[in-house]
Amino acid sequence: MTVRTLEVLPDAAAVARRGAYEVAAGASEAIAARGRFTFAVSGGHTPWAMFRALADEDLAWEAIVIWQVDERVAPDGDTDRNLTSLIRALPETVELHPMPVAEGDLDAAAERYAASLPEAFDLVHLGMGDDGHTASLVPGDPVVETTDRSVALTREYRGRRRMTLTYPVLDRARRVLWLITGEDKAAMVPRLVAGDPSIPAGRVSAEEQLVVADRAAAAELAG
After folding, report:
1. What's the whole-model pTM score?
2. N or C: which end of the chain has fewer CB within 10 A?
3. DSSP three-state, residue 70
4. Does residue 28 contact residue 35 with C-beta atoms inside 8 Å?
């Protein structure tokens, strides 16, 4: 059974701090129980603010392993790449598994990346777009229906093809942390919280999900 808990905070900075707290708590629990913390991270401005807030937390970074939820197909170092900001945000001691989107054979690269994934992530961070997409599971793309692969490639979306984790991986996560900010998401947040399958974000069915939104994103829930 999927349980989505909603928290509404004043602004994006508060959402980032709450996200940092959840990551730190999840890391401590997983490391104590299993010796490492497996964490999948999406792109966007809010997670980079979250990582800045994590600098204040006492974390065993050497026991934290990070994968990407999705990535644009672009050259290494390109400003469109989530990896570019992720590398800047993380301490060098972290074991980081970048999505291999600069390789020539992207299908083979996706298969290799899938082989690197843990059986179940301790925590998956997700965001949501103004069209209800999450990860790079976007409305109308065949990748939304993919169930036989853990990592898949999209059609071009907003100027780039993307590599993304698929629903089977997201749904096996022990916990999903949604960080959602901005008034452009306001129409989609009620649909996410309700688990509306007509938007990609609403189809994530991991059992334990925490949705942290700022007031602007949650405005239609309040009204």
Report:
1. 0.96
2. N
3. strand
4. no
